[in-house]
Amino acid sequence: MAKKQTPRTEGNASEGPGRIRQAAWLALVTVAVVCIGFAGLYLVSQIENFIIRDPRFTIPASKDYGDESPNIRIEGVKNASPERLRDVFAKDIGRSLYLFPVAERRRNLLAVDWVKDATVLRLWPNSVLVKVQERTPVAFIPASSTGGLHRSALIDEEGEILYPHRKAEFRLPVLIGVTPNQPLEVRRSRVRRVMRLMNEVGPLMEKISEIDVSNPDSLRVTMQVQDRAVVLILGKERFLSRLNNFLNHYEEIRQRLPEATVLDLRLDDRITATE
Asked: Which of 5, 62, 67, 90 has the fewest CB atoms within 10 Å, i.e. is most exposed?
């Protein structure tokens, strides 16, 4: 009986040369990609050097003042120091706009007093636009002495101390119990109590010239009523209702307590004189 022969499978004769061609193409593509990459980097480098060195992209200096530039425009400034704001950009004058550090300059601006927020924009080819949002003062604080000189100061709702750099008129009450040497958190907490009072009493703030927050749990206000100024102890809540109660009964109070200068309004059923 003849044996059944198992057929043999032979490899494709073209398999070896095919693999070689595939490897060669892969190597060629790799080299091409690398070359294109280096060419791209070189092109970017050349463009970057062009933008840095070409005078068309340089922030120019003012013809009259070398430390200023007509191409750096700052908007929204009323109370901040113009000199301090210009100093922020002194290093950028005469340099390419491409090298202008937007984020860093914004941080520098936020370190200037009166500046609450700022937006800094590059305007190609060689200009900068700065939009400043200033802090809003809510009260005066007692003048501080610096080198023998007394400086009037203001404070905003976040407890930041603000010194006027130019003449400006602010119709604001004086805040007692807040000083520049207190920690920021203490100042902020006390000013927030005052802001609650201001927001609650609304138009009556026009009659209030001074707010004492030395004791945050018992606010005092100095109020002008007709032809006299009286100090009113309001406590820490129900400011509007207590003031309205006082004003509604003012004539009676004046007749009963003609010499009183400090009145306690914290009790609902009575108003008492403490001085």
From this structure: 5
Is residue 211 a contact partner of residue 176, using CB atoms and an 8 Å limit? yes
Residue 222 clears pLDDT 50, i.e. is over it? yes
DSSP H helical segments within the chain, as ranges? 15-53, 82-88, 102-110, 184-201, 239-248, 250-256
- Structural domains in the chain plus CATH codes: 57-134 (3.10.20.310), 137-273 (3.40.50)
pLDDT value of residue 40: 61
What are 148-172's pLDDT values in tens digits? 445 679 999 999 999 988 877 889 9
Q: Which two tokens stand for residue 104?
A: 């860093």
CA atoms within 13 A on the CB side of 111: 9
Backbone torsions φ then ψ of 127, nearest 5 degrees: -130, 160
Could you tell me if 191 and 197 are in contact, meaning their C-beta atoms sit under 8 angstroms apart? Answer: no
Phi, psi values for residue 202, rounded to 5°: 55, -125
If you search the block for the tokens 């190597």, which residue do you land on? 27
Three-state secondary structure call for residue 168: coil
Rounded distance between C-alpha atoms, residue 139 and residue 209, angstroms: 10
Question: Two tokens at 49?
Answer: 């050097």
The whole model's pTM is what? 0.77
Got the DSSP string for 92-159? GTTSBGGG--HHHHHHHHHTSTTEEEEEEEEETTTEEEEEEEE--EEEEEEEEEETTEEEEEEEETT-
CB of 141 within 8 A of CB of 154? yes
Q: How far is CA 59 from CA 91, 94, 122, 198, in A?
A: 10, 5, 11, 46
